[in-house]
């Protein structure tokens, strides 16, 4: 996990578990050291964020990213670039930046990731508005279940700006990454059990108020209940999968599974 007030899982896990206070000041954006220096300078916040959490997830899982299929989920993609393109097209349409234009596509972050790692495995990008995190998670789970190979799941959103911020609210940066696999390994930190059922979003688990205040205005904040379970060592949560469907998740830590 990487968020403006939770810069990295080591920090985030302690805060989400109620064992530490969040940093007093917000971080601007992650470094994304995986990217070459020139690409790192040009990369927008959305790409830097997605690449950072993807790299950290693979490192924590001790898995080679070059062979991992991946699923990327984002509600709005890069709202800053969308705002820039709308502004330029209205005022000076012949001066559109080619670099910013190619970063405007919804799969830009996934493309940067594959180029930086040299990964030729397939990737999927998902956007389902308020339900992007949960639908993306289910997509990754289903790919693992159907193919049997591990899958990298990355979900992220950044801050909106300009006129778009009136209709597409999102504040700060928030990105999360998971490596999902069918079989346990020495690096496994938890086991997920899941089921789908009908139900309304009113039944979805609400994160702790203290934690939600750190990311509640980001469009990807719906990831928080699952990561609270991971930080606390297990439990159950219900995530909204759509207007009339729910994803029930039970998390068991690796220690609980072993015993």
Q: Provide the domain count.
A: 1
The description of the largest β-sheet is: 5 strands, mixed
Strand arrangement within the widest β-sheet reads 1-5-4-2-3
Shape-level CATH architecture:
3-Layer(aba) Sandwich
Number of strands: 8
Low-confidence segments, given as residue ranges, are none
Looking at how many chains there are and whether they match, the oligomeric state comes to: single chain
The whole-angstrom Rg is 18 Å
Shape: globular
Write down the secondary-structure element order: EHHHEHHHEHEEEHHEEH
- Which class in CATH terms? Alpha Beta
* CA(first)-CA(last) distance: 28 Å
User: CATH superfamily, called what?
Assistant: Thiolase/Chalcone synthase
- Class by alpha and beta content: alpha/beta
Kindly describe this structure.
With 259 residues, this protein is an alpha/beta fold. The chain has a single domain (2-183), classed as Peroxisomal Thiolase, Chain A, domain 1, CATH 3.40.47.10. 37% of the residues lie in helices and 20% in strands. The strands form two sheets. The protein has a five-stranded mixed sheet, with helices on both faces. The protein has a three-stranded antiparallel sheet with strand order 6-8-7. Helix 1 (9-16) packs across helix 9. The longest helix is centred in the first third of the chain and has 17 residues, at 45-61. The protein starts with a strand and ends with a helix. The model has no long low-confidence stretch (mean pLDDT 90).
């Amino acid at each position: 996990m990487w968020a403006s007030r939770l810069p990295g899982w080591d920090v985030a896990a302690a805060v989400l578990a109620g064992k530490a206070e969040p940093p007093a000041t917000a971080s601007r954006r992650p470094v994304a050291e995986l990217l070459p220096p020139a690409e790192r300078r040009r990369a927008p916040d959305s790409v830097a964020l997605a690449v950072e959490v993807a790299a950290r997830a693979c490192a924590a899982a001790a898995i080679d990213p070059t062979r991992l299929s991946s699923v990327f989920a984002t509600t709005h993609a890069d709202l800053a670039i969308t705002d820039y393109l709308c502004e330029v097209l209205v005022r000076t349409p012949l001066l559109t930046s080619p670099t910013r234009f190619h970063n405007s596509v919804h799969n830009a972050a996934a493309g940067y990731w594959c180029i930086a790692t040299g990964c030729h495995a397939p990737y999927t990008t998902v956007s389902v508005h308020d339900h992007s995190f949960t639908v993306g998670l289910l997509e990754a789970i289903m790919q693992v279940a159907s193919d049997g190979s591990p899958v990298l799941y990355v979900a992220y959103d950044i801050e909106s700006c300009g006129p778009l911020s009136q209709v597409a609210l999102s504040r700060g940066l928030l990105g999360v990454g998971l490596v999902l696999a069918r079989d346990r390994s020495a690096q496994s930190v938890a086991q997920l059990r899941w089921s789908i059922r009908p139900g309304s979003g009113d039944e979805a688990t609400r994160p702790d108020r203290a934690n939600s205040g750190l990311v509640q205005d980001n469009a990807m904040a719906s990831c928080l209940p699952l990561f609270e379970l991971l930080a606390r060592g297990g439990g159950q949560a219900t995530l909204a999968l759509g207007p009339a469907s729910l994803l029930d998740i039970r998390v068991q830590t690796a220690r609980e599974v072993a015993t």
